[in-house]
Amino acid sequence: MTMSLISLDSPGREVLLMGNEAIARGALEAGISVAAAYPGNPSSEIIGALADVANEMGIYVEWSVNEKVALEVAAAAAVSGLNAVVAMKQNGLNVASDFLLNLNLTGIRGGLVLVVCDDPAGISSTNEQDSRIFARLADLPLFEPSSFHEAKDIVRFAFEVSRKINNVCIVRSVTRISHARGNVALGPLPTTRPVPHFDTSKQLSSLPAIVSHPVAHERLKQAADLIESSPFNCYEGPETPELLVITCGSGWFFAREARDILGLGSQLGILKIGTTWPMPENLIRERLAKTQRVLILEEVDPVLENNVKEIFADFNASLPQISFYGKKSGTVPDSGELSPGLVLGIFSRLTGVALPSPEDGYRASASAALGEFSPMRSLAFCPGCPHRASFWAIKKALALDGRDGVLFGDIGCYGLGFLPTGFRQPKTLHAMGSGTGMASGFGMLSRFGATQPSLTVCGDSTFFHAAIPALVNAVHHRSDFLMIILDNSATAMTGFQPHPGSPRDAMGSEAPPVVIEEVCASLGVEPIVADPFDLNDAAATVYEQLQRPGTKILILRQECALVRGRKESRRERIRIDHEKCIGEECGCNRLCTRVFRCPGLKWNCSVSKAEIDEAICVGCGVCAQICPAGAFVKEGA
Amino acid sequence: MEDTHGLDELNQRVLQTGRCSSCGACVDKCPYLTVFHGKTVMLDRCTLDKGRCFTYCPQTYFDQEAAAGAIFGQPADPGPIGRVMAVKGSRAGDPGIASRGQGGGTVTALLITALQSGLIDAAVVTSQAPGESFSRGMVATAIPDIMSCCGSKYAGSHSLSALKVALERGYEKIGVVGVPCQVRAVRKMALYDLRNEGLKERISLVVGLFCNWAFSAREFHAFLAARFDLTAVTRFHIPPPPARVLEVETSDRVSTIPLDELRPVFQAACSECSDMTSEFADVSVGMYEGKAGWNTLITRTNTGRDLVERALSARNLLLEDFPEANLKHLEEASAAKKARTQGETLSGKV
Q1: What topology does CATH give the domain A3-189+210-227?
Q2: Nearest residue on chain A to B5, judged by CA atoms?
Q3: How far is B163 from chain A (nearest CA, A)?
Q4: Which of B:11-40 have CB within 8 Å of A?
Q5: Which of B16, B30, B49, B53 to substitute to test the interface with A, most A CBs within 10 Å?
Q6: Distance between CA atoms of A580 and A566, rounded to whole angstroms?
Q7: A574-634: which CATH architecture?
Q8: Is there a contact between A402 and B44 if contact means CB atoms under 8 Å apart?
Q9: Nearest CA in chain B to A396
Q10: Is the minimum CB–CB distance between A585 and chain B shorter than 8 Å?
Q11: For strand B136-140 and strand B317-321, is the pairing parallel, antiparallel, or unpaired?
Q12: Which residues contact B322 (CB under 8 A, 6 or more apart)?
């Protein structure tokens, strides 16, 4: 492992950090004792980076079973006087929100910062969601960094505010902040940490809410006073701009770049807001007083826009008539990410300054250059991924069964099963553990005449995260369905973090693994275990289980190909016998590259034969089981 | 050739519409179609616009005139039982075979003759091994193999899937025993031979069986499983009219089930088939009404006539004249099947 930069004790030194590492460094500079999370992109590297330095820094870091538990673990530290950070993606905040919307009413006694990394456009998510709404819902302060350095400093500042108001602070990042890299100037690291102590003389309860809710409002007001003068809100531009751009988060980057490209420095002002709830009311009012046209530039929902307009409404007697441009006016898209090109277009339309014309042939040469590096390939399971084999087996079993069985999908790498890489087998895709809940619900419908078998797939990490309550529910209500646990022994989608089934914890210490079979057996369902790489056996097992009544559990177990690849070399060398390959002829029609679609398989158009991509094939040998011509030859690694 | 398509169309026009007769012509030739528990199952879409599955399927276009030209050297016979050289009563010369086979054991006797005389080097027959729930195709190359396949199965068996096995094993003179839809499929294979497997030459003999309808294997199996210990069933028999029952022979007794009770498990495809006597076979064999222990044997081609002569001279087969009244009745029954279906499938309406 390379030495971590986030634990460097060299104040003033500038280092290149990923946004998420900068957030982790900010937490270290704030003197955290505890960090917890359930992984989820684009947030995973925050706790990952802290886990790497946990022993060195003397902090406690854990990959919790789910986001709610992560927040609870962090909150326990924060009610005992410590600083704690918890990180999650937008979906995770939904999971944690039940606890969050009670914790906000009791408050804390140390410092607790909840970092939520939103994924505009849902690049690595099933949904697009603007988590900033939660800050208002929970009456908690919200901070949005606009640069990598600020990502670090805003977290440190959020801890200060949290300790002062005795409540949680939320920091919202987005993919382009979390996953890009930039220079970050290191601050000092604390030398001491408080000893945790829970003051048992006072209870922490939200009861009665009629009392605790106003207290939360009072704390938010205290925060408003603290943030008004913070350096994370700043204005750049002429005193009376023709167009005032109010922005936050990644919008600030794009706004500055577009302003400079179009040469709008003398007419366009940029007001960056880093503390987006509560709003720095005076600063906003002061800037609104000096313009008549305002563009609000932000990703996903019009949160900033609505808040600015609210201030405008409150103070409209003292403000000029203003035209607002944003999501409501249709000027800024109401979903997806911002980009420099998008912002350039918006600025150009609003100011009448023409876009610069790109150099001749630039577009063509750029796409040609890109083409060299990125082969045309759809979103797919990795070469040798056991999920491909599992979905192949499920597909076959469902076809043989012939009752139009419904496979309820779930969250994880295997969510990609929704696409051709998983033969489009899952018919639903919602939230962590929802496949099990829905399958168990569908399994109750035979009483109304439903004849379709009910199945779900669930990853090992998802099993622990949210599927267990649904399974308990199913067993108790005698639901008739098959739960297929796709156990690849990793939280693979987010970067192989350990989970409660793993023999090690986040800090690398030995940990007692919770055994899925034992959990299932304790609920009264003895699971069957099969190997997805034995395609026919796996398909036959799925089929057999489908014929049985009641709640059934099948574990298809095979280690993630990437995890295995890190530990050992290619299992077998696979070669294709071109004499035997019948390619596009009747009898095959490219089953391997057209239907099975492992990226380790290539179609050679010039000779109309399949080939192995030696660079990425991991030698799992599954393709050899599907070739109707027996053209795949295993040669040993 | 008109109207040739691929798996997508086969699925739409035959599999999805219940017109599949479980002949086995399409399965196991590719990764997309297989047999499972008595049903033809599509595992994936193929997308080829022309495939053996659709082309060889007896439920799709069948060019009777092209087939008749190739088999008989003459136009198709529009009569109720097709082109006929001779119709005889027959039974196996060996009483042991006659008693084990259905009726008089004629098919068994003919196949043994064909193997012994070198007319064929392998036979594709239908086997139902003890303890197996579903009958299936098998490649028989020796007399014990043939003997193990005696007796009617009455259910769609996909037995033509074994023809692929015989071809892969390299047999050059293959005999096929089948019901009318299977005979049609085999003749289409020889006519179109999409992958140039030498099918016209390598399919040397086609023995057709009389057939009015067959059970749908998966449903028939479920029907029986609800009533019998299937491992104890030794033989099925449907006696000639007017009995209208299925006899199920188990180790200790014979049970009868009225055919009307079984009607829901008939193959839907059979109600559209207008060929009762396997009109495009070399020889066709069926029950001999009113004469237990004997079969009706129709010789249709020179190949068939040659085989019958060899069987006679080897004393593998006994023949007798077929009464005019029986022939008339056979023709009436066959015409009635045609009338019920108005010749739909044979003229290729699917």
Answers
A1: Rossmann fold (3.40.50)
A2: A586
A3: 15
A4: 29-32, 34, 36-37, 39
A5: B30
A6: 33
A7: 2-Layer Sandwich (3.30)
A8: no
A9: B43
A10: yes
A11: unpaired
A12: B87, B88, B89, B296
Looking at residue A181, its pLDDT comes to: 95
- pLDDT one-digit tens code per residue, B306-319: 999 999 999 999 99
Q: For residue B289, how many other CB atoms are within 10 A of its CB?
A: 16
Partner B contacted by A586 (CB < 8 A): yes
CA A46-A47-A50 angle, to 5 degrees, is: 95
Give me the sheet containing A551-557, strands edge to edge. A406-408, A454-459, A481-487, A551-557, A528-530
Domain ranges of chain A: 3-189+210-227, 234-351, 386-567, 574-634
As a whole number of angstroms, the distance between CA A83 and CA A35 comes to: 9
CB–CB of B99/B105 below 8 Å? Answer: yes
Residue B345 pLDDT class (50, 70, 90 cuts): very low
Q: Find how far residue A614's CA is from the centre of its chain.
A: 32
Burial of B112 (0-12, 13-18, 19+ CB in 10 A): buried
Asked if residue B214 lies in contact with residue B21, where contact means CB atoms within 8 angstroms, the answer is: yes
Angle between helix axes A19-29 and A148-165 (nearest 10 degrees) is: 40
- Report the pLDDT value the prediction gives residue B1, as an integer from 0 to 100: 53
Residue A76 binned pLDDT confidence (cut-offs 50, 70, 90): very high
Per-residue pLDDT tens over the stretch B17-27: 999 999 999 99
B100–chain A Cβ distance below 8 A for any pair: no
CB contact under 8 A, A586 and B42: no
Q: Is the pLDDT of residue B344 over 60?
A: no
Pick the residue from chain A with its C-alpha nearest to B26.
A587
Name every chain A residue with its beta carbon within 8 A of the beta carbon of B53. Answer: 586
Q: Are B76 and B270 in contact (CB under 8 A)?
A: no
pLDDT in tens, A364-390: 888 888 877 777 778 899 999 999 999
Return the structure tokens found at A128: 């697009």
User: What's the CATH number for A386-567?
Assistant: 3.40.50.970
Query: In chain B, what residues touch A395 (CB-CB under 8 Å)?
Result: 43-44
- CB pairs below 8 Å between A and B: how many? 45
- B47–A594 CB contact, under 8 Å: yes
In tens, the pLDDT along B127-151 reads 877 667 788 999 999 998 888 887 7
Q: Tell me whether residues A395 and B43 touch, CB distance under 8 A.
A: yes
Which chain A positions have a beta carbon within 8 Å of B195's beta carbon? 585-587
Q: What is the mean pLDDT of chain B?
A: 91
In chain A the first and final C-alpha atoms are separated, in Å, by 27
Interchain proximity A396–B43, CB inside 8 Å: yes
Q: Which amino acid is at B159?
A: S
With 0-12 CB in 10 A as exposed, 13-18 as middle and 19+ as buried, what is A238? Answer: middle
- The structure's pTM equals 0.92
Q: How far apart are the first and last CA of chain B?
A: 15
Please answer whether residues A572 and A621 qualify as being in contact, where contact means their C-beta atoms are separated by less than 8 angstroms.
yes
pLDDT cut 90: percent of chain B above it? 75
Reduced to 3 states (helix: H, G, I; strand: E, B; else coil), residue A549 is coil
CB B269 within 8 A of CB B23: no
- In chain A, residues with a C-beta closer than 8 Å to the C-beta of B39 are 402
Which chain A residues are closer than 8 Å to B41 by Cβ?
399-400, 402
Domains A3-189+210-227 and A234-351 share a fold: yes
| Interface subset of B 214-243, CB within 8 angstroms of A | none
Q: Which residue of A has its CA nearest to B194?
A: A586
Domain made up of A234-351: CATH architecture: 3-Layer(aba) Sandwich (3.40)
- pLDDT at residue B110 above 50? yes
With an 8 Å Cβ cutoff, are A395 and B195 in contact? no
